[in-house]
Q: What sequence folds into this?
């Protein structure tokens, strides 16, 4: 069943922005190969040589390549671990500065097309109280990460910190766990009108008057595989929140650069022409 936050525009088919995280490469393990049985009946008089020996040699080379791929994966992981440590003081300094800007995370979330699809007006009011966002990967990087949201005192819930953790299971599926939100009386955004308890995250809104899903419905959803929003926050927003806070468009930036170059070129031609006339 498709959850409400998925039906709002978050789904597995998003064109997620590529991050610069080498851990994605480190996670790419060599897939097990099904070895064809080498045919003992291959004609040994083949004019191109002994096909059986050739196939065995090719298989040996492929085995060596697989070993190198595994080695490369391990070394890439070590590099990523090293640079994760080097990034930490920069993240800390950036977070301290961001905390001085009112509504920074609210505007950042609202300017992100996928995250904005999850926000209603009440969510926006809650996010005005959000002071910090941070992402922490596990030491081995491969097994998961957690997203930490920090809030100042607000009229919606008692928590000062909300944590959503993503953990890779042995089967390769991403499971989640999260902080229980201690909603203040009458303020639970995940409770739908007429419903009691947790909102029906897996339900569909068939009536136009139904309440829209809340961002916090995603937060409280701990179903397996529901990690698309987490990936966007980790690899996109956390990696470079400024581009969304300022609502920068890469195409617009490129056009502005091209226009500036054209203006500089025209000014240069005018100066050359003026110089020739003086002569």
A:
């Amino acid at each position: 069943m498709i959850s409400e936050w998925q039906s709002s525009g978050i789904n597995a088919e998003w064109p997620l922005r590529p991050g610069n995280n080498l851990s994605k490469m480190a996670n790419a393990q060599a897939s097990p190969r099904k070895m064809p049985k080498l045919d003992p009946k291959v004609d040994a008089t083949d004019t191109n040589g002994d096909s059986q020996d050739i196939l065995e040699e090719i298989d040996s080379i492929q085995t060596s390549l697989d070993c190198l791929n595994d080695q490369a994966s391990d070394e890439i992981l070590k590099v990523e671990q090293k640079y994760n440590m080097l990034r930490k003081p920069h993240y800390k300094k950036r977070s301290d500065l961001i905390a001085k800007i009112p509504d920074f995370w609210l505007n950042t979330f609202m300017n992100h097309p996928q995250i904005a699809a999850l926000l209603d007006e009440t969510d926006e009011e809650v996010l005005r109280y959000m002071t910090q966002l941070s992402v922490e990967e596990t030491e081995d990087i491969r097994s998961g990460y957690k997203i930490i949201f920090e809030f100042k005192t607000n009229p919606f819930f008692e928590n000062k910190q909300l944590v959503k953790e993503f953990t890779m299971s042995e089967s390769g599926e991403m499971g989640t766990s999260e902080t229980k939100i201690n909603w203040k009386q009458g303020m639970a955004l995940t409770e739908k009108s007429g419903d009691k308890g947790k909102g029906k995250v897996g339900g569909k809104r068939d009536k136009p008057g139904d309440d829209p899903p809340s961002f916090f419905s995603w937060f409280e959803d701990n179903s397996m595989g529901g990690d698309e929003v987490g990936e966007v926050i980790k690899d996109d927003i956390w990696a470079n929140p400024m581009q969304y806070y300022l609502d920068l468009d890469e195409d617009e930036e490129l056009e502005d650069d091209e226009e500036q170059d054209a203006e500089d070129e025209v000014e240069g031609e005018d100066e050359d022409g003026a110089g020739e006339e003086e002569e």
